[in-house]
Automatic annotation (TrEMBL):
One of its GO terms (molecular function) is metal ion binding. Keywords: Heme, Iron, Metal-binding. It comes from Nostocoides japonicum T1-X7. Residues 167-333 form the Cytochrome c domain. Pfam families: AAA_16. Residues 1-20 are annotated as: Disordered. This is Cytochrome c domain-containing protein. PROSITE patterns: CYTC. InterPro entries: AAA_16 (IPR041664), Cyt_c-like_dom (IPR009056), P-loop_NTPase (IPR027417).
Length: 395
């Protein structure tokens, strides 16, 4: 098969040629956009799932839908070492520009509020001139609005002003936050409080977040009412028919077909996880001599895909762990069963012949690095599908 015409796209956040299995979420979001634009109440949305299930791809698709609806949008990626204030200010700057409000004076005022919000540090003090944030905003910073330094107060004031601007033109503003579980505790609390306030004020502002499976627990620990603020959409692996569509639809565009047996073999090796579907699809296309693609082609190409995943998908994450953390990860893999993705921390301790308390530093570090998550009290699981199998095969 011609590698230049290979239609598959394994990449972090890279949209596949066929976004299969996500019609339900896309349709539901279109309804949210229309309802909010008409002043109807709607909750913000959170996409929750393991790595490799396509949360970022879907987040970007939802943003595209909002742009098509004439909304103002802004996107940021949360990082553990970064406060929310400045990336959110940049996102809101873009959202205000996209709204296209006709009143120049009102837009300038709101941009001044955005600038004031982004220009304050955590204490509310003004930073040195050379370090002062401008975000490319020409308007002067507004004094006394979103500039107290208290992120919860400032965020409510910021979204209130931006939401009012959106309401003037009969549209809305959507803030898209990727890796939302990495927000700091104060920022999570402020975001929940702001969403609560926007709902009470009936302002057309929503947050669309994406994060790992423990994101609901992160929010709940911050605000007890968070489960009522957000609608959670669990993003999981594709079923067999959706995985087949993700492979066959792009192939048909290139005048190629997959045998039914090849599709069954692909589902067996990928488990329906979208990233793996693309990675194996690309490898099989490059190896297959001709169309139709067969189960034998899948068998021949599988080691190529596994080798690439071992380096780029699994290996890069494993390398971030210290020796003690790697030992913990390998014990997790040994303790896991095929039918249960999570393992008890006591089982890990037993395998390592250690007291559970002595393993807390390694476990906590892996949680912070996003390699594992707490599925429930006393149980942990990998954030990356098939990671346990990788560890068992490469230990």
């Amino acid at each position: 098969m011609d590698p230049i015409r290979n239609p598959y796209a394994p990449g972090a956040g890279q949209r596949p040629p066929e976004l299969a299995g996500r019609d339900e979420q896309l349709t539901a979001f279109d309804i949210v956009l229309e309802r909010v634009s008409r002043g109807r109440p709607e909750r913000s949305l959170l996409l929750v799932g393991l790595r490799g299930v396509g949360k970022t791809v879907l987040l970007n698709a939802l943003r595209s839908a909002a742009v098509r609806a004439g909304w103002g949008t802004g996107k940021l990626e949360a990082r553990p070492d970064q406060l929310l204030r400045r990336p959110l200010a940049s996102a809101m700057h873009q959202a205000v520009r996209e709204l296209g409000h006709p009143a120049t004076a009102e837009v300038s005022h709101v941009l001044g509020v955005v600038k004031a919000f982004g220009s304050r540090d955590a204490t509310g003090a003004t930073t040195r001139l050379r370090d002062r944030w401008t975000g490319g905003i020409d308007a002067p910073a507004v004094t006394g609005r979103a500039d107290s330094g208290d992120i919860e107060i400032d965020l409510v004031e910021l979204l209130t002003d931006v939401g009012g601007l959106a309401a003037d033109v009969g549209r809305g503003v959507a803030i898209f936050v990727d890796e939302m579980q990495d927000l700091g505790a104060d920022d999570v609390s402020a975001l929940c409080a702001a969403c609560h306030e926007m709902g009470q004020a009936a302002l057309p502002v929503i947050v669309v977040g994406a994060g790992l499976p423990h994101l609901p627990a992160v929010l709940s620990a911050s605000k007890s009412y968070s489960e009522r603020l957000f609608r959670y959409a669990r993003i999981d692996r594709l079923d067999a028919s959706a995985a087949a569509l993700a492979l066959t639809a792009p192939a048909q565009e290139e005048d190629a077909v997959w045998d039914p047996g090849a599709l069954d073999a692909m589902y067996a090796v990928t488990g329906g996880y979208p990233y793996f579907v693309q990675a194996y699809g690309k490898a099989v296309w490059d190896r297959a001599p001709r169309s139709p693609i067969t189960a034998d082609d899948v068998a021949v190409a599988a080691p190529d895909a596994e080798g690439e995943l071992a380096v780029g998908f699994f290996g890069s994450r494993y390398e971030r762990a210290t020796p003690a953390e790697r030992e913990y990860l390998r014990a997790m893999a040994d303790a896991a069963s095929p039918d249960e993705p999570s393992v008890a921390t006591s089982d890990v301790a037993r395998l390592l012949e250690r007291k559970p308390q002595s393993l807390s530093p390694a476990r906590d570090a892996l949680l912070k690095k996003g390699l594992i998550y707490s599925a429930e009290r006393g149980r942990i699981a990998f954030t990356v599908p098939h990671f346990g199998r990788y560890l068992r095969d490469h230990s």
